[in-house]
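chain below, 302 aa
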Amino acid sequence: MKHIALLLLALICLNLSYAQEEAPKKWNRSGDIGLNFSQSHLSNWAAGGDNALNWQGIFNYNVNYAHEKNKWDNNISLALGYSHLGDAKAIKTDDKIELNSLYGYKATEKLFYSLAFSFKTQFADGFDYKNDSTNRISGFMVPAYITLGFGMEYVPNNNFSINFAPLTGRITIVNDQDMADAGAFGVDPAEYDEITGDKINDGKTSRFEFGAKMTAKLDVKIAENVSFNSKLELFSDYIKNPQNIDVDWQNLITMKVNSWLNTNITAHLIYDDDIMITDKDGNTGPRTQFKEVLSIGLSYKF
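prediction:
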């Protein structure tokens, strides 16, 4: 299933590329691919330490269409990174598969009726390294999020846009029965007999939500060789606890050294009250998730 999904993503990119070649005046495409890394080697080092290698691969591709009152913006974003410390098992530091597509029909000069689609998951298994590297807590399609919403998009200029979709459906997929039985990522857990402990019904492997979603995007140049990109997503489920708003906020600062070398700082904040996290003190509940990565590496824009 993993290879089929990756093949579908590749076919989408190829199909959109072909469409752009057929109508060069209506289609615009761009992308970048990069490899960021850091490495240290110690030999007879009196102060102690261990060899380390960290790497992160990224791929972004945009295909946009604009003609008369119609526009269609498409983006695929992929990332995968690992940290290797000594002889220990590699630890995953970054993992993302994200596909976004938005069709807009012009209502006014800066306002569009919009239909927005998004798909999010990851490539590889994730583990709870606080315990050991065998405690699997995520994987490909565990979870996956599929969102489709109708609303309005406001585009005042080329640097900023905000899309509000008050009619949005979201499906959460947990394609692992053991994790579904445990109620991971907000799906309904399995039911067990109170006396024997035997499982009566399997946990649900999917969950449907209906609510409102807001997506704001900002892309600006701070200085000659410094750019800032930010995307904020907010979602409220009308059906269950609408006051608890899910937050997904991604930020990227790129400092360009030359045409092929740059430094990136990424910061990603997530809050979802359906995701239970156990902290270092053993307390379980929803938590604010935060990830920051500073990397230096090679990049190529096309």
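DSSP finds two helices and 16 strands in the chain. Confidence is low (pLDDT under 50) at residues 1-8, 18-23.
thats it, cya
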